[in-house]
């Protein structure tokens, strides 16, 4: 019982406990993250740059060394294939150019490189590191199994996924989208989810944190409408997940498991009650791995993301930000959405159209693209759709592609577009009712 209660209470408190602050309510993870960002702010940017350089150099070095008889965790991280190697090298070059302000200002300036380094990847470095350390407390000692049994039936009925996926959603809601994706990857790799279930959960439940939602709303000057915004986002997100789980490409993913012989019935074999939920939690806690194994897993996860995700995301986000700021590329590419927005009678459709697609690169870019639109209702639509799209390549998209999840780039593009098309009419109707 203590093996279940103590670690689970620590993990739940860190991710779920609301603590009043001068700027509103925050969870301990957010408070701790903010503290580290404040205390270590002078060294964090150069830390990101060093990680990018180390990642590129180590990956190149491993490319010229023979493979071992059995691939170690280090080799798995540093032998990513040609495409990822090129992205890591490009990310290292980008980080160096930004930090030391090499070349033209349009690359490393305040609106491009500085924003990418300081506003995107410095917080990501801290958030992902903390999340990887705390996640085993909620995944390895029975907390997910406890809640999984309690909400198994409604989650199966609504989203065709196990009840334990509720924790993935909560982790995203309070800790950030990358946190939710990491939870889903770990659960899939341990045999808790099938390929289809993992794909549905990762692409439908991994919403950005409530704190970041407020940042987007405030940037769009919609602070006074945060509660209606979050209510609409929640409702449309539920409807969208119900639909996405039942249509391709997610509905066509196989119900196969990475762990052979894992039973399909899981929590469904028991009636949802407190007693059966507690039994499931105690069973999981009794078989929890030793602390040394957990520590090795944490270290491997952190290094995999720090050395793999951050350099690649650095390059992708920088290129996309430059394109948004200095070209009409996304305006041209988004022309079909301009026609659709006009048909839906959204004000300033041409100005809002680019915001419908730039979120695929980085979740904050739609707010940047739509910040100067005069119509408050249009900015509201952009806020709902951009947050609800969920897939963005600078972070969670790369996490999904790097992982064992059964998702490729084409899947992510199709899912992103389908979510946009499903969310947009609901967001427009909601904006019309509110404004």
Automatic annotation (TrEMBL):
Lineage top rank: taxon: Bacteria
Transmembrane segments: 43-65, 77-100, 120-138, 198-219, 225-245, 305-326, 346-368, 380-401, 413-434
Keyword annotations of the record: Membrane, Transmembrane, Transmembrane helix
Taxonomic lineage of the native organism: Bacteria, Pseudomonadati, Pseudomonadota, Alphaproteobacteria, Sphingomonadales
Keyword check for Transmembrane: yes
Domain Nucleoside transporter/FeoB GTPase Gate: from-to ranges: 122-220
One Pfam family it belongs to: Gate
Organism: Qipengyuania aquimaris
Protein name: YjiH family protein
């Amino acid at each position: 019982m203590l093996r279940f209660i103590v670690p689970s209470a620590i993990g739940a408190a860190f991710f779920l406990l609301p603590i009043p602050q001068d700027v509103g309510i925050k969870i301990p993870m957010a408070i701790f993250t903010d503290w580290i960002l404040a205390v270590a702010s002078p060294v964090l940017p150069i830390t990101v740059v060093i990680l990018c350089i180390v990642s590129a150099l180590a990956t190149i070095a491993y490319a010229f060394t023979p493979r071992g008889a059995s691939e170690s965790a280090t080799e798995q991280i540093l032998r990513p294939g040609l495409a990822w190697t090129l992205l890591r090298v490009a990310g290292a070059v980008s980080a160096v150019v930004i930090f030391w302000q090499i070349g033209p200002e349009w690359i490393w300036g305040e609106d491009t490189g500085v924003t990418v380094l300081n506003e995107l990847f410095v917080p990501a470095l801290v958030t992902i590191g903390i999340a990887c350390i705390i996640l085993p407390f909620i995944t390895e000692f029975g907390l997910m199994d406890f809640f999984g049994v309690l909400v198994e039936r409604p989650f199966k009925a609504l989203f065709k996924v196990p009840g334990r996926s509720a924790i993935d959603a909560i982790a995203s809601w309070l800790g950030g989208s990358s946190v939710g994706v990491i939870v889903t990857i770990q659960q899939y790799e341990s045999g808790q989810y099938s390929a289809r279930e993992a794909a549905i959960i990762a692409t439908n439940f991994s919403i950005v944190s409530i704190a970041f939602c407020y940042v987007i709303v405030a940037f769009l000057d919609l602070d006074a409408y945060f509660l209606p915004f979050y209510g609409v986002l929640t409702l449309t997100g539920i409807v969208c997940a119900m639909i996405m789980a039942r249509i391709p490409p997610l509905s066509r993913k196989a119900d196969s498991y990475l762990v052979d012989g894992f039973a399909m019935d899981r929590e469904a074999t028991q009636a949802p009650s407190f007693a059966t939920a507690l039994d499931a939690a105690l069973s999981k806690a009794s078989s929890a791995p030793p602390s040394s194994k957990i520590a090795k897993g944490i270290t491997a996860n952190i290094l995999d993301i720090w050395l793999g995700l951050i350099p690649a995301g650095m390059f992708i986000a920088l290129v996309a930000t430059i394109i948004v700021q200095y070209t009409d590329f996304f305006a041209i590419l988004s022309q079909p959405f301009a026609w659709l927005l006009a048909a839906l009678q959204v004000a300033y459709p041409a100005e809002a159209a680019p915001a419908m697609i730039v979120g695929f690169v980085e979740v904050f870019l739609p707010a940047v693209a739509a910040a100067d639109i005069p119509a408050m209702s249009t900015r509201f639509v952009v806020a709902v759709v951009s947050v609800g799209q969920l897939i963005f390549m600078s972070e969670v998209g790369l996490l999904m592609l790097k992982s064992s999840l059964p998702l490729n780039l084409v899947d992510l593009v199709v899912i992103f577009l389908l979510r946009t098309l499903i969310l947009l009419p609901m967001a427009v109707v909601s904006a019309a009712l509110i404004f």
